[in-house]
Design goal:
single chain, about 55% strand, about 130 residues, mainly beta, 11 strands, eleven-stranded antiparallel sheet
Length: about 130
């Protein structure tokens, strides 16, 4: 459905939790826009080494609608054959051309763009 790139900042550590990142310009065949400043991004590093991320932010589409995105990600660096990073996204859109987002289930993948860039690429897919 769409993908976005996130520029990463130094983590803010709060007890055993850490995280703080910003988003860029999501785009795809059905959705284009810009992630608005602000939002919250939290990361929990579990005792078993698995990371749980919970991000909440707003996306303004090219036509001006504001969509709230909640992205919950599970990352297992020890997975075989390679890194496992999958997410479930919940989108909340206002009435209008994007309200179909409220009635669908979305999943995603997360890929690091390091060392070339301090960013990640998130690919989002609509489940049929």
């Amino acid at each position: 459905m769409a993908h976005e790139q996130r520029r990463l900042h130094q983590p803010l550590q709060v007890g055993q939790q850490q995280g703080d990142c910003r988003l860029r310009h999501p785009h795809g065949p059905r959705l284009r826009g810009t992630v608005l400043p602000g939002g919250a991004d939290r990361q929990l590093l579990r005792a078993d080494g698995v990371k749980e991320l919970d991000a909440l932010y707003e996306l303004q589409t090219d036509d001006g609608a504001v969509i709230t995105v909640r992205n919950r990600v599970l990352i297992d660096e020890s997975a075989t054959p390679g890194r496992y990073a999958r997410s479930v996204l919940q989108l909340s859109a206002p009435a209008g051309p994007h309200d179909w987002l409220n009635r669908r289930v979305f999943v995603g993948t997360l890929h690091s763009l390091r060392p070339a860039r301090a960013a990640v690429c998130i690919r989002v897919y609509e489940l049929a």
